[in-house]
């Protein structure tokens, strides 16, 4: 599992924007930036839609005031689902990043097999990444939602 002071693995993602499909790399998204990335088990799922993503949307300006350059929401979903979820949640300021096959999540060591829920998914977490290096990691216990909320992350910045 990735730990603090480790560099994120190189990866190319799918990110569907208003201008179409893009394929940013880890360097494109994290180099020379201070980024909060949070992961959810699945788009449109109850806790993710009711609390996790909305907290980051509502607190976007507070993160900016703390020097955060970008907020990324990542899930083992495809780019079309992530875009639709972001639109439904008014998350225009959040990069809705797709890890369609879970390869990035696997490389981080932060995935889990959920069986009937949807197969391989991400664990719920948030991390602070500075110039591609993880400087803080907040990993939730199974079925918990405490340390990776927007409010908890803000309190720890």
Summarize the SSE layout with pairings.
Layout: E1 15-17, E2 20-22, H1 26-30, E3 34-39, H2 46-58, H3 60-65, E4 70-75, H4 79-88, E5 95-98, H5 103-108, E6 111-113, E7 120-122, E8 125-130, E9 133-139, H6 150-155
Parallel strand pairs: 3-4, 4-5
Antiparallel strand pairs: 1-2, 3-8, 6-7, 8-9
Poorly predicted runs of 5 or more residues: none
SSE ordering:
EEHEHHEHEHEEEEH
Largest beta sheet: strand ordering: 5-4-3-8-9
CATH superfamily: Glutaredoxin
CATH architecture: 3-Layer(aba) Sandwich
Helix/strand structural class: alpha/beta
The CATH first-level class comes to: Alpha Beta
What fold name stands as the CATH topology?
Answer: Glutaredoxin
Strand portion:
25-35%
Number of helices: 6
Task: Describe the 3D structure.
The protein is built from six helices and nine strands; from the N terminus they run E-E-H-E-H-H-E-H-E-H-E-E-E-E-H. It is an alpha/beta fold. The chain has a single domain (15-144), classed as Glutaredoxin (3-Layer(aba) Sandwich), CATH 3.40.30.10. The strands form three sheets. A five-stranded mixed β-sheet has the order 5-4-3-8-9. Strands 1-2 form a two-stranded antiparallel ribbon. Helix 4 (79-88) links the parallel strand 4 and strand 5. The longest helix has 13 residues, at 46-58. It is globular. The chain starts with 14 loop residues before the first strand and ends with a helix. 32% of the residues are buried. It holds the Pfam family Redoxin.
């Amino acid at each position: 599992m990735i730990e603090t002071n480790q560099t994120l693995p190189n990866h190319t993602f799918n990110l569907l924007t208003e201008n179409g499909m893009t394929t940013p790399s880890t360097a494109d998204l994290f180099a020379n930036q201070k980024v909060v990335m949070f992961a959810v088990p699945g788009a449109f799922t109850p806790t993710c839609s009711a609390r996790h993503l909305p907290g980051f949307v509502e607190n976007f300006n507070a993160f900016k005031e703390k020097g955060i350059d970008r907020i990324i929401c990542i899930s083992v979903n495809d780019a079309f689902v992530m875009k639709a979820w972001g639109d439904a949640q008014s998350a225009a300021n959040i990069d809705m990043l797709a890890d369609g096959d879970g390869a990035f999540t696997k490389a981080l060591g932060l995935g889990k097999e959920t069986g009937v829920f949807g197969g391989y998914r991400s664990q719920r977490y948030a991390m602070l990444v500075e110039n591609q290096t993880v400087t803080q990691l907040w990993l939730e216990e199974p079925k918990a939602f405490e340390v990776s909320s927007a409010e908890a992350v803000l309190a720890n910045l």
